[in-house]
Amino acid sequence: MDNDRCFKLKRDGYSCVKIEPKVYDLLTKEELASKLSASLISWQQDGIRGVWAEVDLIHSHLIPVFVENGFDYHHAKSNYVMMKKWISQKEPDTLPPYASHYVGVGGFVLNDDNQLLVVQERFSCSPHWKLPGGHADLGENIGETAEREVYEETGIRTKFQCVVAFRHMHQFRFGCSDFYFVCLMKPLTLEINRCQYEIADARWLDLETYISNPLVSAANRHFAKCYLDMITTGEHRILPAKVTRYTNKGYDLVYSLQDRCDDELPHESETGFKL
């Protein structure tokens, strides 16, 4: 087949190809339709298994061309849509689905008087006391998330200590699942300066009072009991350790039962919150 009629793309390690948005600048809608149709035939003959197509906002008028050629939506972000098509007739579709989980973090902040830092959200369906926290940003470790979120919501500076417990919940926002990590935090300051936009109230509550408070959910009550069990049954904690990444470039944090934290762990990532 005439190569000028087809996209010239390099296959990846999975024998798939990806169409980048820059190619659309040189094509009309009709030219894209012709070139895409010819390319799909050529790719199938060459053993290409799947095709990715990233379509940015300024080229969104081209999305029907991909739909007409059998592409499905894979995921969307604020500035693009990713579409995909499995073209191998010899193998089942193994293109990976998009991310299925959120990662949330709650800061379990205890002061020297055994008081727990708790908040009431401004926009909640009913009043309840919960741990300050929120979702992890891209590239952010859970300890960094806890430190950042606690500060943003309450004005309290903290230091990550260990993971107390985590919850795995399904059918969460937009049908995704959710990991929620409860992190024991050491307060570095004590004066509360709550976020006026998100937090209706923030205060220090005696831990036992918190556990028996009717405005505390079963899950948060359970987290508090997990902490009490942890400090009465032994010295081991769920702590991060540096483990070399599978690419042998850099490392990842692996959380397991340990008796001390790696002193050389980074405090912040490139996108992390800086104290």
Automatic annotation (TrEMBL):
Name this protein carries in UniProt: Nudix hydrolase domain-containing protein
Domain Nudix hydrolase: 100-229
CDD domains linked: NUDIX_ASFGF2_Nudt6
Assigned keywords, A-Z: Hydrolase
SUPFAM superfamilies: Nudix
GO molecular function terms listed in the Swiss-Prot or TrEMBL record: ADP-ribose diphosphatase activity; NAD binding; NADH pyrophosphatase activity
Gene3D superfamilies attached to this UniProt entry: 3.40.630.30, Nucleoside Triphosphate Pyrophosphohydrolase (3.90.79.10)
Protein family per UniProt: Belongs to the Nudix hydrolase family.
Pfam families: NUDIX, Nudix_hydro
